[in-house]
User: Fold this.
Amino acid sequence: MARYTEPVCKLCRREGMKLFLKGERCMSPKCAMERRAYAPGMHGRQGQFRQRPSDYGMQLREKQRARRIYGVLERQFRRYFEMALRMRGQTGSNLLSILERRLDNVIYRLGFADSRPQARQLVTHGHFFVNGHRLSIPSALVKAGDVIQVREASQQNGYFRNLREILQHRTVPAWLSLNPDTMSAQVLAVPTRDQIEVPLAEQLIVEYYSR
Assistant:
């Protein structure tokens, strides 16, 4: 299973925005974007004085930003785009809807994890059931009607015991429903673009792949 293993704070600095890849640390003064809000590398400080990027550069940057927010490598991201292209509706909105329905992202949206990388790890370790079956594939796509639950053995884990009270005050997206008492949730519908709160211009991604 391929994944990014380099320092993730460099990704935030390269994109010029917080990608919230390290959970609570991203909200603290220790965040790299708070201390060094410029691109990594020996020429990072000089980047702000460079000329305006080309159309291609803007399209590439937006595609890379989307990949890094959701923790998806290039080959898989391209497959998601091809799936979105075959669906009815706007390709960009379809693409974001597919990314949102990844199991690791849903776990993050529900508040079971502080970041998508942490959600990916929790899923990989088999802490969740989907429709009564243990599922340990972070890239699995959920659909409307699916029920997600922390498995009973994991609920006795110290991490999930402490999490139960926090979830009582958790607000989840409108396309999801959370029951903190049973540590379970349901996918109410496929998310629409106005329900997806990510700072992305998806049309630039469509233009990138349509060159």
